Amino acid sequence: MNAAETMPLNVLGNPLQECGCDPMTGWFRDGSCRTDAADLGRHSVCCVVNEQFLSYSKAQGNDLTTPMPAYDFPGLKPGDHWCVCAARWLEAYQDGMAPPVRLEACEDSALAIIPLELLQDHAAAA
Question: Which domains does the chain have, with CATH numbers?
Answer without folding.
Answer: 45-121 (3.30.56.110)
